[in-house]
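HUMAN: Ready with one sample?

ASSISTANT:
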Amino acid sequence: MSEQQVFYRPEHFPMLEIRQARATSVAYHRHSHEEFSIGVVDSGNTDYFIDGQTRRIGPGAVVLMNPDQVHSCNPLHLQSWSYRMLYLQADWLTALQAEVLERSPDSGFQALSQSLLCGDSHYQQYHQLCSLLTSPDSRLGAEVNLTDYFAELIRADQRCEAPDRLKCASHLQRAYEFIADECVREICLDDVAAVAGLSRYRLVHAFRQHYGITPHALQITRRISHARQLLKTGNSIAAVAADTGFTDQSHFHRHFKRQVAVTPRQYQLSAGYR
């Protein structure tokens, strides 16, 4: 089977995107997404890094990543694997979580505590959800299934609170938000340290220890996330590279493929822009 990467953006569900990868051996650097991410391993094995730990998982495993949670999934050496990922906008899930837990959505999204689900029932439920979402003639069924699926995840989560390792001290949170908000601008470490109220050394050390990546890696991750949105609206690759803070197209191309596993052109073609 030849390698294949396909992105689905269901017409009636603009808050989500589905990625299907077949027979790929591409490895990812540690990164995060603004969206809530949930996926399954269809075949092969992968090393799944999350919460500072690496676990080896195989077919049928369901992985969950909260928004901004650092992670990576990489196939074993010289092996390929197939998987599907669903990226869901955090605002939509926050509103649903508020309904399920009968609380105000103003309190924000509370991270789910589970990052891995095993068992055939979990795999089959995910498979059914993706099948309905990618079917052009089952809008109501897909909407009901989507709501039920994520409501059940929220209900089943024992704590539905961010564990201590996901809660950061206020100074690190300020640094994170500053980098995220200013990701396309050229900022320096002194800027971030001043916002956080920490020395440069302490900031870098604590940031890496808490989030699993450096401040610069977060900046690149957020730039790529912003670039994906611009590419989907038909902007030229050169313009996107410039608008997201990359020095040139080759620099942009290298980082984009490292995190998304396809080139900017391939990603744009998948959105229907030629």
